[in-house]
């Protein structure tokens, strides 16, 4: 999770986005380590429900790169 704190400190992502980024990382870890037992329906629902978090992260990084 330190990577997100570094990105926040360097002004790449806003601090209010950190909770969402942490949730994204935890979700990724659950999927990668098979903690969700590959329930594709649940994984798909969570991914679609929180897709805006990923889009916001991409927008923040893109804006920083373009500045």
Describe this entry's structure for a reader:
It is a single chain. The chain is mainly α. It has one domain (2-66). It has four helices and no strands. It has helices at 2-9, 18-32, 40-49, 51-66. The chain is elongated and about 40 Å long. It starts with a helix and ends with a helix. The model has no long low-confidence stretch (mean pLDDT 88).
What does the main sheet amount to? none
Total of DSSP H or I helical runs spanning 4+ residues:
4
How would you describe the shape? elongated
Question: Stretches where pLDDT falls below 50 for ≥5 residues?
Answer: none
**What's the overall average pLDDT, rounded?**
88
Strand proportion:
under 5%
What share of the residues lie within helices?
over 70%
Give the total of beta strands: 0
Order of helices and strands: HHHH
Total of domains: 1
Structural class: mainly alpha
Q: Tell me the distance between the termini.
A: 25 Å
Radius of gyration: 13 Å
């Amino acid at each position: 999770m330190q990577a997100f704190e570094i990105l926040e400190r360097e002004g790449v992502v806003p601090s209010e986005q950190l909770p969402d980024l942490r949730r994204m990382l935890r979700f990724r870890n659950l999927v990668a380590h098979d903690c969700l037992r590959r329930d594709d329906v649940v994984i798909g629902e969570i991914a679609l429900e929180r897709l805006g978090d990923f889009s916001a992260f991409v927008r923040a990084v893109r804006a920083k790169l373009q500045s």
